[in-house]
TrEMBL record:
The lineage of its organism: Eukaryota, Metazoa, Chordata, Craniata, Vertebrata. Belongs to the GDAP2 family. InterPro entries: CRAL-TRIO_dom (IPR001251), CRAL-TRIO_dom_sf (IPR036865), Macro_dom (IPR002589), Macro_dom-like (IPR043472), Macro_GDAP2 (IPR035793). PANTHER family: GANGLIOSIDE INDUCED DIFFERENTIATION ASSOCIATED PROTEIN 2-RELATED, GANGLIOSIDE-INDUCED DIFFERENTIATION-ASSOCIATED PROTEIN 2. It comes from Chiloscyllium punctatum (Brownbanded bambooshark). CDD domains: Macro_GDAP2-like, SEC14. This is Macro domain-containing protein. Residues 42-222 form the Macro domain.
Amino acid sequence: MDPLGARSPIIDIQTLPCWAHRPEPLLETGLSRELRPDTSISSPFPYRKDINNKVILWKGDVTLLSCTAIVNTSNEALSDKNAISESIHLHAGLELKDELQKLKGCRTGEAKMTKGFNLAARFIIHTVGPRYNAKYRTAAESSLYSCYRSVLLLAREHSMSSIGLCVINTPKRGYPLEDATNIALRTVRRFLEKHGDTIETVVFAVTDLEEATYLKLMPLYFPRSLEEERRSLPFLPADVGNAEGEPVIAERQIRILDKPGIPPYEDESDEEHLELEYIGTHAFAKMEGDIDKQRRLILQGQMSEAAVQKAHQRNYNRWLCRARADDLSGVASLKALYQTGYDKCGRTVVVIVGRNIPVTLIEPDKALLYFIHIMDHIAAREFVMVYFHTLTSEHNHPDSEFIKKLYDIVDVKYKKNMKAFYFVHPTFRSKVMTWMFTTFSVSGLKDKVHHVESLPQLFTLISPEQIDIPPFVLEYDARINGPYQYSCPSSPDL
């Protein structure tokens, strides 16, 4: 409402363009580089024009939408004073406040409904988003998912044909916008897959600050073509939730005996008794054998190959769980590891910048967790790694124990799809150390390591425009090997 009391115009959602009709900007999600994706790998969110026709991304005040229901984000007492809630109260009128008092509050993650009163929408669905704390990230993820899921289920229960979704995670509650947007989009996508016949339109109503993030992430969950689906696949987060969009939280896994009170099997190395078993479908019902015993059997050579792989996978899953829960922003700020373009065989390229690794300052476990956090979804398909050894010092060299530990954790999952490790600007000492390590410490890696003396040599394998190279590496190579004429995109600020 403006200062003169004139109400802003009501927005008929039928006049808004659906997501399927919005063009695909070349640089919308940073996916404009040409690539040859592995067509054998399908996206968990395939191209669905029928779903895209039901989705609208609109920048504006959710209060103005003419639809069956709009969403209000509030606190547990349903009295929060945020921009969305205040606008809803302003347009709905005083009757809304009286109605909310009858609801006697709302728990975090739940949703309750009132009439729309003076709004263009017939109903208001009120929900309470979580307060974000990095230490309790998994709880916040589950609660935010529950918010969107509860809203959608309530809409389905009351046969609502259209709903205007505000961004539930308000800035005052501190939820990182990109993380929250991933949860919102995938939850709506999964709901429309299962219950699309019960709802005609979902409008994501966003502000100026939120629009860019939604434009960036929408193609991951609502690709508008098969090509956009393929281009988006490498950029999906590691956790895309279960069939409902709910976060998969490994911390809920517990150890429990298959049959408490019954003596253990005589042959405890029997593979079938090391299988994971489930009660129902929830993660907290997962049961597994004695992991310490399994490790001991591995060392004694008494476990089958299949059982060894299962043990490796369980260990990896525990690290992945920590990687998703821990605050790794400090390691990320080093910009020592990042995904870039694709090599000439269409494989994802991952860059490691040796000089940016402060071994004496960084916590080894944090570095390992960050590596897993970045690499988990990349390792699902073929990839290559480029390590810039350029101008590193002894303070940048992880010890062999750390590398061995990393290799042991990711061995089964990563070794198969890592097709090459390019060691750029190696020194004589680093060549000797690499040979000793790949010969005596780890297996299956030696043939994949290739020493690259200059950038022109690297460019025979990876086109210059497909790899972001730190400026100091470019300067060093030009000084040592002479200038090389090529057009290179701006590198990350390292």
